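hiii so um. not sure if this is the right channel but i have a protein structure encoded as tokens and i wanna go backwards to a sequence. like what aa goes where. can anyone help
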């Protein structure tokens, strides 16, 4: 994901592009969804809930989410070491956005599917 500067954001014709790039990039939303619905999780727990993600990609996405301030990583110095991930307050502020998208999906996604079928059959 390319980093944007404040100056380049102001030139963007769509003001939500930086948010879309941040939140809706590949695997970000599913990871946040898992953390939202299952709370604090260890790496293996997240990996089990997202069986099609590779460990390498999960590690990369968790690091990026931590860098972006959306996921908090807690390291426990015990034997064996334990690491847990959870949504930050910043990430929790996105929950209403996700809920709105779920509502829209339930109300309208079938119309999108109908439109696709009609387009494809034409």
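sure thing!! here u go:
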């Amino acid at each position: 994901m390319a980093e944007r500067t404040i100056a380049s954001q102001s030139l963007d014709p769509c003001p939500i592009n930086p948010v879309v790039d941040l939140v809706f990039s590949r695997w970000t939303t599913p990871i946040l969804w898992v953390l939202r619905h299952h709370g604090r999780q260890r790496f293996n727990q997240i990996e089990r809930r997202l069986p099609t993600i590779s460990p390498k990609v999960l590690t990369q996405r968790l690091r990026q989410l931590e860098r972006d301030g959306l996921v908090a990583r807690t390291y426990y110095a015990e034997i064996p070491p334990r690491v847990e991930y959870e949504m930050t307050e910043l990430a929790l502020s996105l929950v209403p956005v996700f809920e709105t998208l779920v509502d829209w999906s339930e109300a309208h996604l079938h119309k999108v599917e109908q439109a696709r079928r009609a387009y494809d059959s034409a």
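oh and Helices lie at 6-11, 17-23, 28-38, 43-49, 55-67, 89-92, 95-121.
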